[in-house]
Design brief:
By secondary structure, the protein is α+β, with helices and mostly antiparallel strands. The chain contains 1 helix and 3 strands.
Length: about 60
């Protein structure tokens, strides 16, 4: 899971070098499947943040 988070940060840096001056729309985010569940994230470029907006634990 840490590798996926590192990939997200690198992708955000590559696309949006100066996040606070960004004027366009934010990325849509995506779902990431992990063992036993999934999580959904959203990238907010202007605030230079990646938010986890939902965590689902399926228990298997």
């Amino acid at each position: 899971m840490e590798t996926r988070a590192q990939e997200l940060v690198r992708a955000a840096e590559a696309v949006h070098l100066h996040g606070r001056s960004h004027q366009g729309l934010d990325s849509k985010g995506a779902d990431v499947i992990v063992p036993g569940g999934m999580f959904r994230y959203q990238i907010v470029v202007r605030s230079e943040r990646v938010y986890v907006v939902q965590i689902t634990y399926l228990g298997f």
